[in-house]
Design a protein that fits this description.
With 1424 residues, this protein is an alpha+beta fold. The protein is built from 24 helices and 46 strands.
Length: 1424
């Protein structure tokens, strides 16, 4: 198993399948911590925070092609344009040669004439223009992008790659950095590359159906071998009533006629636009094609070799989804997604005219018809996947095109629902495919359950179809969702097909499945369409892979009745004659015809033509309207009376009303949605809050203090809190009882409550109480106790050692969210109490301050009334401070709008405006009447200023001023006192936030420690698994290495045996031919004689022979002398050897038998030499393989040792020989004593620290005062000695001195900016130089590595040659000769003895046979 790299990697990476083992685990662990709050995440520092950041998921490369090399390398082309090479040996390595995401890995384009588009590609682009398809843009040559390596093929010159960009590139992949050698542009998306047998011709297949071949790479040309029609099949039909032809249409508008018996393409017809569907007419030899732009084309097929278009009409403004004929070929039904279903005539005699249309909303996907015995045509239309519309055409057909109010709803041709007995109903699920099988049943595919369902048509009185059908039967047939259904013309067989590539055949009406065939590959989309011929003997299928297949069906019909004449034969003959007289249609599809009215009925066309005539004369109508305005009102006409087309006006009015109603409904729905969201937000952020968010503003200062919004606790949460409280109390009681009975507790210093009780009994004075508080803070870990966070069930800080204790402590501190998934829900309730109590305590004080502000505002307002009166009496122009409740202090008033907040003028109804003006007039009249009725007051005001007595004004004025100042002072003091209280509250809020953050920090640190322990455990588990895997792999490697060693030893023994036999034949020659002593030397020379070219061995194997030419392009051919396969001498060598064996080379006087024996002995020696050399090469390969396996075994051993070093723990003590076992209570008591003494010492040190701090503070203040005195003396001297210079005068006298100073500063800033810019440019230049040097170093390293590899190979070759030389040429020559002479003599003696013994044995054997025959006579059986 090899794990592919991510799309961002480049270079050599590990191909180990466990490469991402730890990464996945660490990612999963880190994702559980990424939901912590931002404030706390900023507190966590160090590597712990970095390891908890969420890692992005790595997207791996997607392989799409591959090829093997001769040296066991796999070249893989990827979807994203990456080229990867994998060493497929046992220790696999992976190298990403090209990655478009890293531009430096993309090789450059060669400046050769090959990097041009071929002539075939250029001609193909011209053909595309003829078929009105947009040609693919010419790619940027050399720009390797996604899809550039969709197909790969290897040749001796390099790696050939092709892809979506239409370019064939030759890459040199022998170096570390690949480079492009050649490039040819095909101009089509390449899907396959293949070489000829001699690797001289490259075949190129494209997705557009073309096949090119490239022979000579020096000429930039790709020759076009085959240009087949391309494009996806969108329609398939048979030509009725024939069974020899079928017709298909592709999405690009290519109509093709195929011969079924002898598979061939007989003719082609081009429509010229994008096609969507196809249907064949039963009553004539035509097919109808639906297009993407709403047209239908009628094609005449009477002449198979020359089909022609005879009619074209536009029915829809969008793509036609489905076309269908009835069984008798009278009607053509066309459906689209524009809301209309058109009904047209299928007869050429009527000009294929349009009858009308039905308004069917949604996207029409299926149309099916059925003609019953009463000649009633039933139709069913499937639209929007789950809506079904049923209607019949028995009433409508005889009406023709004349407008009939009983049939048509409008003159535009819309048919009434009642005229066709229309019924609409909704299906229970989405359906695919629809077909009538009987008069009262239809079948369809369920898109959800992949089942074929039969619906029974429910009928009421008078055979009226009801609006609800029921499912009568269900059939399971396909493994993937269904695609379509087709039925034979005789309605005996039903075909179903699906994306699983299978076609099922059902017998009607029993619905028995009689066949199930796998026709197309489901990986390529399965079956797209299927039909059955008229004789039910062949099935034609098309697949999503653009394949057309014909299948022979051995089906025998069960009908024994004699065949009758086709009832449509006469009608078909008449229609075909009419079709043959029709002229061929020719003409482009222009945009001006998109709005043509030919898709309506004749009445509509006439109406529109008359309307066009009326609209062509608008001037007289305008004159009449102008004249009508000048007439008297009694003689004027209404505007609607000038309407010439009343129906059109009424239609426009209705359409506008519908649009208005739709807009209203849309606005209402939006308002409902907004109200719903408003209610959700209000419930979540306001109604569920037990304490709403508020903020207190100070009177004079800018201090603002907010409270803590708090949600209401649910009953479940309160019940869980009570349960956990009870559980913790039981634990404390158990610990106390255990300490009382046994004498010690498993949980000393269990709770803070016990410590408080012990300390209260031991300490009675205030100092001891303060020490107790400090001790509780130290044990608690924060100052939360002073702010209401004290909880009697909390653990001590010194007890948080075990994992469950830390988790319980986290639970007791704060409520856990979903991010603390390690803790269970039962423990998540205590965490609410501490922070909840802190916030609740602060909120109580906040409410007190809030009430205080309201009270102070009331008091100030009372004083403001008096002050306003005094100011009015004194006629002063002073402003009075008017405190108000801020909107933040009453958030419920935030969304209320008051009249004084509205700046715009209020709109008043006429009645309200009149009533307001009347009240104003009455008020003014009342004031005037009161002034006129009071002459005494008016006279007093005019004569004495409104006073009857003359009071001393000065005394009154002073008293009022004194009272005003006193009131102002009281108001100011009140505001300052309240602001001080708000400042104290603000300080407490800051401290409270600090305490809350401390609590959260405690929780996070505890959780961090838990997470670290969990990570360590998981890491250890992963290392253990990795260790087991590597150990198992090591065992396998070791076993394989042992087997390989055994095989090598056995083969070496065999090789040694062959070598010894070869030497023995050399040494035994003279003994073998000792009887030819005079000719021995001559025969030995002939024995040693070999034809020239003996070293030219030819590889032999079981594969077909490969031509061993040095110029071969086959990358898999083994060159001469390579270490692979067996070897044999060439045929020329054996022909030369036969010449040597000729009797003409025999020495004179030598016996012919001896010469033949010499030839046989020499042939055996040559065969043995050949075998020895072959075995030597094989042994060298086996030894190299053994070395490689040994190296892999050593690498695995090193990996296992490194894993063991990681798993080894030095802190764990396993030897307890020097340890003493004591009771736990002794250690705990000693720890308690040490802790008490330490706390006492800390308290004393705190007192000393505070005392010294005060002393240092006084000294610091004394130093500050001394320095201030010195500064004042220095300033005085400076002022006395200050000289008024010219610059000082300029500064004092010039008003623009500040601007001059600013200009100097600006000039200096510009200079600094220029220096910065120059410095940045210098840095960029240095970086570029550094990058160039790095590339140079990398190149040198690559070159050094290559030289090192060559040096290793040369050293290995030298060692091998030296060993061979030592074996063959070692020893003393004289000693060898003497030894050889002795061996010949000994062998000769042994041969003589063996001959004598053989003669004696032969004699004895003959004597034994004679005696046996004498004793046991033979009984011969004579045949009768």
């Amino acid at each position: 198993n090899i794990t592919l790299p991510s799309i961002d990697e480049v270079g050599v990476v590990s191909a180990d399948s466990d490469r991402y083992l730890q990464t996945r685990q660490s990612t999963r662990l880190s994702s559980a911590v990424t939901t912590i709050s931002k404030s706390v995440n900023n507190i966590l520092a160090g590597t712990a925070a970095k390891t908890r950041r969420e890692q992005k998921r790595k997207h791996l490369i997607v392989p799409v092609s591959h090829c093997w090399s001769a040296n066991s390398n796999i070249y893989i082309g990827c979807k994203g344009g990456q080229l990867v090479v994998i060493d497929a040996t046992y220790n696999s390595t992976l190298n990403i040669l090209i990655n478009p995401r890293h531009k430096h890995t993309i090789p450059s384009v060669p400046t050769t004439p090959l990097s041009k588009p071929s002539s075939a590609a250029a001609s193909r682009l011209e053909q595309d223009f003829d078929t009105k398809l947009e040609p693919s843009p010419s790619p940027t040559f050399g720009l390797i992008g996604p899809g550039a390596f969709n197909c790969l093929s290897l040749q001796r010159d390099g790696l050939y790659a092709g892809g979506n960009d239409g370019s064939i590139r030759t890459l040199d992949v022998t170096l570390d950095e690949p480079r492009i050698l050649d490039q040819i542009e095909i101009g089509r998306e390449i899907v396959s590359l293949t070489w000829s047998a001699d690797f001289e011709i490259l075949g190129v297949g494209s997705r557009q159906g073309t096949i090119h071949f490239i022979r000579n790479w020096n000429i930039p040309n790709a020759n076009l071998l085959l240009d087949h029609h391309y494009g996806k099949f969108v329609g398939l039909e048979c030509i009725y009533p024939e069974n020899d032809y079928c017709v298909t249409v592709r999405e690009n508008g290519t109509l093709q006629l195929w011969a079924i018996q002898e598979p061939s393409l007989d003719s082609t017809c081009y429509i010229g636009c994008q096609v969507s569907c196809l249907v064949s007419c039963p009553s004539s030899k035509i097919v109808t094609i639906g297009t993407e732009n709403g047209y239908i084309f009628v094609v005449d097929l009477n002449e198979i070799r020359s089909p022609r278009i005879i009619h074209r009409n536009r029915l829809h403004h969008s793509s036609i989804n489905k076309l269908a004929y009835d069984i008798q070929g009278r009607y053509l039904l066309a459906g689209s997604n524009d809301g209309n279903l058109f009904i047209c005539s299928a007869h050429a005699t009527s000009g294929f005219q349009v009858f009308g249309y039905l308004a069917i909303s949604g996207n029409i996907t299926e149309i099916t018809t059925y003609t019953d015995d009463h000649d009633t045509i039933q139709a069913a239309v499937l639209h929007n996947d789950n809506m079904l519309t049923y209607f019949n055409l028995s009433v409508y057909y005889p009406q023709g095109l004349d407008y009939n109010q009983e049939v048509f709803a409008t003159k535009s041709g819309q048919i009434k629902d009642t005229a066709v007995n229309r019924v609409d109903f909704k299906l229970t699920s989405c359906m695919k495919g629809l077909q009538f099988i009987t008069e009262n049943s239809v079948v369809a595919f369920d898109g959800n359950s992949k089942q074929l369902k039969e619906f029974e048509i429910q009928r009421g009185d008078g055979q009226k179809v009801r609006s609800s059908w029921k499912i009568s039967r269900t059939f399971s047939c396909h493994q993937l969702p269904g695609s379509g259904i087709s039925i034979s013309r005789n309605r005996q067989l039903l075909l179903t097909w699906s994306q699983d590539g299978c076609v099922a055949i059902w017998k009607l009406p029993t619905m028995d499945r009689i066949g199930y065939y796998y026709c197309h590959d489901y990986h390529l989309g399965g079956v797209a369409a299927a039909i059955i011929t008229d004789d039910c003997q062949r099935i034609i299928t098309i697949g999503d892979s653009d394949s057309l297949c014909s299948w022979q069906l051995n089906y025998q019909s069960g009908d024994k009745e004699s065949k009758t004449a086709d009832p449509l034969e006469l009608e078909r003959l008449q229609q075909n004659q009419a079709i043959s007289k029709m002229e061929e249609w020719w003409g482009p599809i222009s945009t001006s015809e998109s709005d043509s009215p030919d898709h309506r009925s004749r009445s509509e066309m006439g109406r529109l033509s008359s309307a066009d005539t009326i609209y062509c004369t608008p001037t007289p109508v305008r004159e009449l309207i102008i004249n009508n305005d000048n007439l008297p009102k009694i003689d004027q006409l209404e505007n609607h009376e000038f309407t010439l087309d009343v129906e059109e006006r009424q239609r426009l009015i209705e359409e506008s009303d519908k649009q208005v109603e739709m807009v209203k409904q849309e606005v209402q729905l939006k308002n409902i949605a907004k109200k719903y969201h408003h209610q959700l937000i209000k419930n979540d952020c306001w109604n569920e809050m037990i304490t709403h968010g508020k903020a207190i503003h100070a009177f004079k200062s800018n201090i603002v203090v907010s409270n803590y919004p708090m949600r209401k606790r649910t009953e479940e949460a309160l019940a869980e809190i009570a349960f956990v409280n009870l559980q913790r109390k039981i634990e404390i009681a158990e610990a106390a009882l255990q300490k009382e009975i046994i004498g010690y507790s498993n949980n000393s210093l269990t709770t803070e409550a016990q410590e408080k009780a012990d300390d209260e009994e031991a300490n009675d004075n205030g100092k001891q109480t303060e020490m107790q508080q400090d001790e509780s803070i130290a044990l608690y870990g924060s100052r939360g106790i002073a702010y209401g966070a004290g909880h009697p069930l909390l653990y001590s800080q010194f007890q948080l050692n075990l994992v469950h204790e830390k988790r319980d402590q986290i639970v007791l501190l704060k409520q856990l969210d979903c991010r603390y998934s390690s803790c269970n829900l039962e423990d998540a309730v205590y965490m609410e109490d501490c922070i909840y109590n802190i916030k609740n305590k602060f909120n109580e004080e906040f409410e007190q301050v809030m009430k205080m502000k309201v009270s102070e505002i009331k008091k100030i307002q009372e004083k403001n009334i008096r002050m306003s009166k005094i100011i009015h009496d004194l006629k002063l122009n002073e402003e009075i401070f008017q405190p108000q409740i801020h909107i933040d202090e009453k958030p419920e008033e935030l969304l209320k709008v008051y009249d004084e907040e509205i700046k715009a003028e209020k709109y008043l109804q006429p009645e309200e405006a009149e009533r307001k003006e009347r009240l104003k007039r009455e008020e003014e009249a009342r004031k005037v009447a009161e002034e006129g009725q009071n002459p005494r007051e008016r006279a007093l005001q005019q004569m004495m200023g409104g006073r009857l007595e003359a009071n001393p004004e000065e005394d009154l004025f002073k008293a009022l001023e004194t009272e005003l100042k006193k009131l102002q002072t009281n108001v100011t003091a009140t505001c300052e006192a309240f602001d001080d209280r708000v400042a104290q509250l603000f300080e407490k809020k800051v401290n409270t936030d600090m305490v809350i953050c401390q609590e959260e920090l405690k929780c996070l640190r505890l959780f961090s420690s838990l997470l670290d322990e969990d990570c360590m455990e998981r890491k250890e588990l992963e290392l253990s698994k990795l260790f087991d895997y590597k150990k198992q792999l090591k065992n396998q490697t070791h076993a394989m290495l042992t087997d390989v060693k055994h095989e090598v030893d056995l083969f070496r023994d065999e090789y040694d045996k062959y070598v010894n036999d070869d030497k023995y034949m050399d040494k035994g020659f003279r003994k073998e031919f000792a009887d030819t002593e005079p000719y021995l030397d001559t025969l030995h020379k002939l024995f040693r004689r070999r034809p020239r070219g003996q070293k030219n061995l030819v590889r032999v194997c079981n594969d077909p022979p490969v031509v061993m030419s040095p110029s071969t392009k086959n990358p898999y051919a083994h060159p001469p002398g390579s270490q692979g396969g067996g070897f044999a001498y060439s045929s020329g060598f054996y022909r030369a050897l036969e010449e040597y064996d000729d009797i003409s080379h025999m020495p004179q006087g030598l016996d012919v038998l001896v010469w033949e024996r010499l030839i046989e002995y020499r042939r055996n020696k040559i065969d043995l030499e050949q075998e020895v050399k072959s075995k030597a090469l094989t042994l060298a390969e086996m030894e190299e393989f053994l070395k490689k396996r040994a190296k892999e075994d050593d690498e695995l051993r090193e990996e296992i040792e490194s894993i063991l070093r990681s798993l080894k723990s030095d802190d764990f003590v396993t030897d307890y020989s020097d340890s003493i076992l004591i009771h736990r209570s002794v250690v705990e008591d000693l720890n308690s004593t040490i802790r008490l003494l330490g706390d006492a010492k800390v308290a004393i040190m705190n007192d000393c620290k505070n005392f010294r701090k005060n002393i240092h503070l006084l000294e610091w203040e004394h130093k500050i005062m001394k320095m201030q005195i010195e500064d004042l003396h220095t300033k005085g001297k400076d002022i006395q000695l200050l000289r008024v210079t010219k610059e000082l005068q300029q500064y004092l006298g010039d008003e623009d001195y500040q601007q001059i100073h600013q200009r100097e500063i600006q000039m200096l800033e510009n200079t600094i900016a220029k220096y910065h810019h120059a410095h940045e440019q210098t840095i960029k230049e240095r970086k570029r130089m550094f990058n160039r040097l790095q590339k140079l170093v990398k190149g040198k390293e690559t070159e050094n590595n290559s030289l090192n590899k060559q040096l290793d190979e040369l050293a290995l070759s030298l060692t091998e040659k030296k060993g061979i030389y030592d074996v063959n040429a070692g020893g003393d020559i004289e000693a060898a000769r003497e030894k050889r002479r002795k061996e010949i003599t000994t062998r000769r003696k042994l041969v003589d003895v063996a001959k004598i013994q053989a003669q004696e044995v032969a004699v004895l054997r003959a004597e034994v046979e004679r005696l046996r025959m004498k004793t046991f006579p033979a009984l011969v059986q004579i045949d009768q």
